[in-house]
Amino acid sequence: MKLTQGLQRLLKVAVVLVLAPGCSPEPVLDEPPAKPQALQFQYHYQRLVDDFIDGQGRVIDGADARLITTSEGQSYAMLFALLANDPATFRQLLQWTENNLAAGDLTQQLPAWLWGKQESGDWGVIDTNSASDADIVMAYALLQAGELWHEPRYLALGERMLWQIARYEIAKWQHRHYLLPGYFGFIEPLTNADEEASIKLNLSYYALPMLDYFANRTGDELWQQVYDSGLYLASLHEAGFASDWAILKETGELAENQQAEADYDAIRVYLWWAIAAKHDPLVERQLETFSGVVTSINELGSMPKSTNWRDGSYAGVGPIGFSSAVLPMLEQIAPQLAELERQRIVATDPSKYRQNYYDTMLLLYGVGSDQGCLVFAADGALKPQWEREECVYVGD
């Protein structure tokens, strides 16, 4: 386009005014306003470090009188330390976990899931069983930390954990391979002619992006089979909500007796399925399976506290962490409701959740994903956002 002489003169004057000493013109474009701190991953990670992780690397759930630590909490904190590019905290968390939950050697033993003040008054392991949801996240965090921080020991330890998970926490039931919730206690064998064998499963333990990463990294079809069994299990949910626990008969069908009420486990299903849906059309279609999330939030204004995955009923308003955990799903299928939940998070007095361990973890997951700090590639690998200040740990 050819400029007229008059317009050229005007532009020259404007340039002189902008460049002239002492002139302070207003910027043409304003920077976008910063997100409220309640919607910032960095803010919640700082809270995690300050309020929940002690000087030895133990994540403490103070809501329990036993001041418990779980393998879940340790694994989540390790993942978030990696996201925040905080290798010192990651190292502490790993060391405490190995020394106290795995008898000093994670290469030989999966972590015990529960540690705290025992009935005798001593401190130590309360329940020796493993928890596969924690083991999946911990193995993933180790493998990714090894890659991103160039730590061979983390890589090797992650591989050893994968081997142990495959050996002790995956079971073939009929023609599918399922992720057992732990090492023992979840398969009921046939004991007499009047009873059926059964398997008890937890859909929230299926961290789909991580299972996908294991399948792609190892080339072992076992991990794809576990991933697929999660999709099959989700397909059995027909009332709009996810379960905490589901029991399958030997035929692979749902058993008659089920724990219909769901809450603190089921909430993670919506998170994992929404994240995986970004790269898997099959999972994307399965989001419709959980239509009760949209229906209930439309009515209540927030995610309900208790849902019934058998009849679709729901009751109460869930804690603030629930509002965070459903953000990735709502952003895909009902963006207006995602904004409604963000408003609730920002409007809530932080003192109401500051000391709540599980709310803090769900806020880190949901806000981290919603803010773009928790990002998975198509192959399940992490895409760290360390160049973004709001995604990294800045310390005290």
UniProtKB/TrEMBL annotation:
Residues annotated as signal peptide: none
Q: Which EC number(s) are documented for this chain?
A: 3.2.1.-
Q: Which GO terms describe its biological process?
A: cellulose catabolic process
Query: Is the keyword Transferase in the record?
Result: no
Quote the catalytic activity from the record.
Endohydrolysis of (1->4)-beta-D-glucosidic linkages in cellulose, lichenin and cereal beta-D-glucans
Q: Does this entry carry the keyword Hydrolase?
A: yes
Q: Which UniProt keywords apply?
A: Carbohydrate metabolism, Cellulose degradation, Glycosidase, Hydrolase, Polysaccharide degradation, Signal
Q: Name one GO molecular function term.
A: cellulase activity
- Under which main EC class is this enzyme filed? hydrolase
Protein name per UniProt: Glucanase
